[in-house]
Design goal:
With about 425 residues, the protein is α/β, with parallel strands linked by helices. The protein is built from 17 helices and 15 strands.
Length: about 425
């Protein structure tokens, strides 16, 4: 396997690292034009446009707008029809994800100044959220859990799910997950047209306050374009994993951890950083030996050759500094005493601590959300959580006494800005 080898001792190491990390989705002008046209069409023609695009792209001959929505009884049947082991795994994962996100609930608060002025913050949930879930053969019930459950914990009143069903193929596990998570309505539409329907609303599909969930390039472009009309979770790039290992973890484990992200697609990034040169060679040997048995070996091979790397560093302190520079989506801290190194790590979507904590556990059932910032945005962004489905309103109730003091302060500043009405509005309330 021709995977890049880097060393922090190289003269141009930081330049090489930055080139490795560089990722900017090339603007596809035709794609962008197509998405813009679809959004405008759905905004103008509503259900008729959504039906037309669904027939064209998903080869789904829906007869009318009502046929786009699945009856809730179908979700119930899908859940009850799951094999016992699958249903129990789904339930256990949902319980863990719910329990974790319940810790994130924010509450309203107030305090009162000495003059009787009350100040505070009121926390309320969004009214309606749209959940985009990939459908057909590429079906991800874990995405339903990770996007729907935080919204429900936050207290969102209504959750609308859209899931494409190309050629009428419905994934029972996705539908079962929707039932388990309490999704309120499900529409069998996808692509940019589904994003448009959620953002603008149609006669059949209600307008939502926020759209969350993964999708292809058309979905990502559509989400970016409707931001402002409604909220979105994020525009995510390819999946990433950075493994920082002291050399004490079995090499096969680390190789498979790198595979676990590389198998997503050819643009995924998997990097190992270690101060142990011999260990790096053992991982390289494991990669070569284990790859052939992987069903998605060609995707893994391409991802590792194009965007993967094995990086040798001087010590664990340097490994942590490099990790912060990368700011990865997933950071595995596969070391003997991860707690000791945690204070040195500032930027990562999720940190998987210790030798037994594979990133894949976080994808499905550990509890924290698997919707994470990518492409270095962990420097300023956070995982999806309950807080993304809540908003805050400032509370201000000024007492008569407070109006005397605050009025003088506000007027002085308003006069300084040349805003006379602001100043007088404050002064009118002074005795």
């Amino acid at each position: 396997m021709n995977i890049k080898r880097l060393s922090s001792r190289d003269a141009d190491f930081l330049g090489e690292l930055d080139r490795l990390l560089a990722f900017e989705a090339t603007a596809d002008e035709q794609l962008e034009a197509t998405v813009a046209a679809i959004l405008a069409d759905v905004r103008g023609r509503g259900d008729a446009a959504v039906l037309e695009y669904t027939r064209k792209f998903d080869r789904l001959p829906l007869v009318d707008a009502a046929a786009m929505e699945l009856p809730l009884s179908e979700l119930k049947a899908a859940f009850e029809g799951l094999p016992t082991a699958q249903r129990e795994a789904l339930e256990q994962a949902a319980q863990r994800v719910t329990a974790y996100h319940e810790k994130q609930l924010q509450t309203s608060w107030t305090y009162t100044d000495a003059d009787g002025t009350m100040l505070g913050q009121q926390v309320t949930a969004l009214d309606r959220v749209g959940l985009y879930v990939p459908g057909g053969k590429a079906a991800y019930p874990s995405s339903v859990l990770m996007n729907a459950l935080p919204a429900k914990v936050a207290g969102v009143d209504e959750l609308i799910m859209v899931v494409p069903t190309p050629d009428g193929v419905k994934n029972p596990l996705v539908l079962a997950a929707a039932r388990l998570c309490g999704v309120d309505r499900v529409f069998t539409i996808g692509g940019a047209q589904a994003v448009a329907a959620l953002a603008y609303g149609t006669a059949s599909i209600p307008k939502v306050d926020k759209i969350v969930g993964p999708g292809n390039a058309y979905v990502a472009s559509a989400k970016r374009r409707v931001f402002g009309v409604c909220g979105i979770d994020m525009v995510a790039g390819p999946s990433e994993i950075l493994v920082v290992c002291d050399g004490g973890t079995p090499p096969d484990w680390i190789a498979m951890d790198l595979f676990s992200q590389a198998e997503h697609d050819e643009l995924a990034q998997a990097i190992l950083v270690s101060p142990d040169a011999d260990f790096i060679e053992k991982v390289a040997e494991s990669i070569d030996r284990l790859l052939e048995a992987m069903p998605r070996k060609e995707i893994i091979r391409t991802a590792l050759q194009d965007r993967g790397a094995l990086i040798h560093v001087a010590d664990m302190d340097e490994a942590c500094r490099i990790a912060n520079r990368i700011a990865p989506e997933h950071l595995e801290l596969s070391v003997e005493n991860p707690q000791a190194w945690l204070p040195k790590l500032k930027h990562a979507g999720a940190i998987f601590m210790g030798r037994y904590t594979s990133e894949s556990l976080g994808d499905y059932c550990a509890g924290p959300n698997h919707v994470l910032p990518t492409s270095g945005t962990a420097r300023f962004s956070s995982p999806l959580g309950v807080y993304d489905f809540q908003k805050r309103s400032s509370l201000i109730q000024v007492s008569a006494a407070g109006a005397q003091t605050l009025g003088a302060i506000a007027a002085e500043l308003a006069f300084g800005e040349g805003l006379q009405a602001h100043a007088q509005s404050a002064l009118f309330r002074r005795s």
